Amino acid sequence: MKKIFGSKKNQEPPPSIQDATDRISKRGDSVDDKIKKLDAELARYKDQIKKTRPGPAQEAIKARAMRILKQRRMYEGQRDMLYNQTYNLDQVAFASEGIKDAQQTMTAMKAANKELKGMMKTVKLEDIDSMQDEMMDLMDVSNEIQETLGRSYNVPDDIDEEELMGELDALEADMDFESNSVPSYLQPDKESELDSELNLPAAPTGHSTTPNRQQEDELGLPTVPQASIRS
């Protein structure tokens, strides 16, 4: 049957934007190479025109140079056209990428919206309010427990603060009186007014000076001072 009716040929996928851009860029590179070769030939013909004298030889060189210039203009036109095509393909590629990004963004937002709706079904405002009220009640009970545990024992509740301040003042007065009623024999010694007026010398201390020893002779006996005779 295939031999009679034939079989369908496998269709190749259409080229992508990137494939078309690469192909056009290669063509543009080949055109640039051709233009560079023509520029080198033009430079060589310019040197020959300068060196040759006016005449048939110079005219022949000019004719070749004109032909090279025409080719160069043609290649430049092709290059500009290829550059324009590449620019258009870049614009299309940029728009295509933007649409793809928008599609992915929309898909992600739809999935997030669906997930958020499912989560909101499990959370109710009434449950949150009731939980907040229960937390406040528990905090109040906890504060009452802390105050009860921190209460001091054997301390009456009907204590007058003014009465306590009066007792404190009385204790301070008693302390001042006790400090002023110290006996005289316990107080430090003070210089009497009579001693200060008479300026008496101080009592001698325990250290006494030893008197000068008398001189002794060779036998160890004290020497007798000799009286001097005056004439």
UniProtKB/TrEMBL annotation:
Task: Report biased composition (Basic and acidic residues) as residue ranges.
Answer: 20-32
One GO CC term, this protein? multivesicular body
- Does the keyword Coiled coil feature in the UniProt annotation? yes
Q: Which GO terms describe its biological process?
A: late endosome to vacuole transport via multivesicular body sorting pathway; vesicle budding from membrane
Assigned keywords, A-Z: Coiled coil
Q: Which Gene3D superfamilies match?
A: 6.10.250.1710
Which Pfam families does UniProt cross-reference here?
A: Snf7
Extract the ranges annotated as region (Disordered). Answer: 1-32, 178-231
Superkingdom, natural source: Eukaryota
Q: Which family does it belong to?
A: Belongs to the SNF7 family.
Q: What is this protein called?
A: Charged multivesicular body protein 5
- Which organism is this entry from? Leersia perrieri
